[in-house]
Task: structure prediction
Amino acid sequence: MVNNPNQFGMFDNETHVVKMPDADVRYTPEYYSGEKANTLFQRLHDETSWRQEVIKVYGKSHPTPRLSCWMGDASLDYRYSSMTMTPVPWTELLLKIKAELEVRSGETFNSVLLNFYRDGQDSNGWHSDDEVELGSEPVIASISLGAARDFHMRHKQTKQKVALTLDNGSLLMMRGATQRCWQHHVPKRANAEGRINLTFRTIKQSRSGEPRL
Ligand SMILES: O=C(O)CCC(=O)C(=O)O
Result:
């Protein structure tokens, strides 16, 4: 990673541009202070209606190796892996997080997927956030709270790999061709404690996506 001025000029803290082709990825390690991130982790942990979704991959049902909650504006259904997720209504806390994120990033969002990795055995398989509902160049804002976890990216054609670590209180912004050209995943990590990740998105239309575990 190299230090670059953030072209959007809207983050308070240092933002790194991740040098990778066919992508626009920016990482702000201290988007939140450690203390604020810890408080948010605890509140989201306690106040969220977590569910373990069951998805179908090649006809077989699997519980996802993490808990999740889909939240957003009413009637924004989101389909992936043969599953239709209907959003739960925004909580006051998530609306506050979203409002601050919109001001600081200059983007707008109408939904968020919350993932809770209970420990290092929870994970998220290789995928792109490229569901048709998200449009051709989705903007994904990913806030991490709790234990640091590896975040690996892999170019769909060249197979080039980029390895990042997403720290407590960090923000990762992915824009432009990133979802079209790259996949990402969160592998298992020995001895990791709990982590909550929020990926804010904008649903533009309805259709289905690719299976993933
Ligand atoms: O937990 C993360 O950092 C990634 C989450 C993710 O890839 C997703 O929800 O699509």
In short: The first helix runs from residue 34 to 47.
